[in-house]
Amino acid sequence: MNDVKPGSVVQEAQWTFPALPDRVWPILADTDQFGRSLGLPPVTYSDRVLPNGDKQKVGSMTYMGVLPVSWDEKPYDWVEGQEHSVKRVMHGGPLESYYVRTRLEPLEGGTRVTVTFVGTPRSLVFKPLVASFAGGVMRGIARYGQRLGDFFAGRAADPFDIPPADLLPSARDRGEAIVAKLQGLGLDDQLVRRVVDYVLLGPEWEMSKIRPFGLAKKWGVDRRELLKVFLHATSAGLLELRWDLLCPGCRDGTDPVSSLQHVRSGSHCGSCNIDFNVTFDQSVEISFRPSPAVRKVEPTVFCVSGPFRTPHVVVRRQFQPGGSNLLELALEPGTYRVRCYQYSTHMTVTLQGVGPDAGSTQRVAVSPSGFQPGTLDLDSSTLRLSLEVQEPVQIVVERTMWADDVVTAAYVSSMQDFRTLFSSEMLAPDLNLSVGNVAIMFTDLKSSTAMYEQLGDATAFNLVQVHFRILAEAIAANQGAIVKTVGDAVMATFYRAEDCVRAAFEIQASIDRYNEENPQKAAPIIVKLGAHVGPCIAVTLNERLDYFGTTVNVAARVQNESIGEDIVLSEDILTDPGVQAMMGVLPIRRSEPFEVSLKGLAKPFALTRVHPDLANVSESLRRHTGEIALQI
User: Fold this and answer.
1) 239 within some domain
2) How many CB atoms lie within 10 A of CB 441?
3) How far apart are CA 596 and CA 592, in angstroms?
């Protein structure tokens, strides 16, 4: 605010809300909604390439329906939970530029919010026009603040004034037909109704890209159950799915495609001006939007650069040569990346959070050759950096963990509902994408040849089908999916290792229970089972989504070490934190660690043969699931 030019129009609005900054910030950080609330028209954005190769974001709108207006939008500055600001430099007209800053100050049990508008006229002659424009902006800001005040005081159910949806005449009838179609599929009927109503009546600006996990957090419902409803509702015609390629820098979607077949191994982010490799478990996201037959969505944009677009970014700020350039942040313990946009370089900072907050200030030099030092490991939970820069640069501090509201291709492809409903979704034949981590189970039916000989073809065949049904039910119930069957063998994948192990115990317990009730004692069902976890690649094989690589090979060979009625686990899956927590409560008669040379693999592998106490598996799993629910 120190660079306000003489003659500028400065106006300010201030409110006090009965809510702490951590609740107020996510709403005020949504600068797209802020733009809507001002009553301004939608904005169209484009990029202009600068002489140095950087890209300047250019915005344009039609003001008051007749006057075309355009500007250069400077990068947003923000510190999470404290403030954000933006400057727009106009292309012609009476307004040279305007600047808007929103600041949050914590109070006892509340937050003071100050919004400052600075409009700079192109000459003093235009100051009355700029003052008139500023007055209109401030009236919109006042309406925005009043609505937020009603929301935080409990007088409004939503922080934004949502206009009613403009429905097609047949939309409600289509919605009722879809609700009826989804009944009896094992879905939560109330959740089905809620999803249909949301798609028909929800805010227009949320419809262009619906993230089920983010919506589940907002609604307070089980996110996997909500995703299942979305998948079935898509199959029923309520929604369309699409695939976005997420940039590792801004983590926003680029190049959305309607099918996995159109995904390629590399992409480019115009906002970050970088090329990046596409991975199955981080870069490829599935999202949804209403089917045009149900609701026509015309996306309108009011801002694309604010903090709401990149919630993993804690700080984004311009730094100038000279001065202190002090960056001071109180952060949760964890790993953060400090990145310089201009130089495409970064340093890694780990905050242990075990020492006093009053840690020393770390001097860091930023240059085209990188950060010096390149890494920091600090005991403190407060990050204090004194940045030495040679020219104006933009510094970003970001969390390294990816957002948990993203449904990746690796996650959804481990769901049986997805594989059943969207079996045509597959990668291009010549494409393979890396998957950072996936749990893989292989099973096989022991002595199936003898079973056919002893029981006859018809009886044995029926018994094999029963075995497949038991496996399928246990795998689906534990958030896994069958990738393929080969003869009597099954390959299944799981997004989490503990789900894989839980399914293994349920399979052996269910098979044992069936054998107890099965009169064919001469040939009981005996399943050999093994599991492993690790990286692999996703490919299309035989017109289905499949997985290949060393992890898959190891999992298959681990299963070969099973003798039946046991579970053989690799050291990698057994030492997974989620598996370790679960193994402490599961009933196990005995465990037998052993080492073996697996066929085709050079190094010996440490394996463990687990003999479950099959009679008590079901009760232990129910108790463990209940404990997890209580923790959540």
Assistant:
1) yes
2) 31
3) 12
Higher pLDDT, 384 or 40: 384
For 231, the 3-state DSSP assignment is helix
Lowest mean pLDDT among 2-6, 98-102, 290-294, 438-442: 2-6
Q: What is the pLDDT of residues 324-373, one digit of tens each?
A: 788 888 888 889 999 988 888 889 999 887 766 656 888 999 998 899 99
Provide the residue range defining the domain that includes 41.
9-152
pLDDT in tens, 16-32: 999 999 999 999 999 98
How far is residue 547's CA from residue 560's CA, in Å, rounded to a whole number?
19
Q: Is 191 found in the same domain as 317?
A: no
Q: DSSP assignment of 94-151, as one string?
A: SEEEEEEEEEEEEETTEEEEEEEEEEEESSGGGHHHHHHHHHHHHHHHHHHHHHHHHH
Distance CA 225, CA 191 (A): 8
Residue 604 · residue 524 · CB < 8 Å: no
- Let me know if residue 121 belongs to a domain: yes
Residue 187 has pLDDT above 90, yes or no: yes
Between 563 and 255, the higher pLDDT residue: 563
Among candidate residues 549, 529, 524, the one with its CA nearest the CA of residue 538: 549
The pLDDT value recorded for residue 505 is 94
d(CA 338, CA 175): 47
The proportion of the chain whose per-residue pLDDT surpasses 90, expressed as a percent, equals 49
Whether residue 364 sits in one domain with residue 302: no
Amino acid symbol at 73: E
3-state SS assignment for residue 182: helix
Read off the pTM. Answer: 0.81
Q: Are residues 330 and 473 in the same domain?
A: no
Residue 3, domain member (yes or no): no
CB 565 within 8 A of CB 444: no
CATH number at residue 589: 3.30.70.1230
Residues 500 and 573: beta-carbon distance below 8 Å: yes
Q: Is residue 139 part of a domain?
A: yes
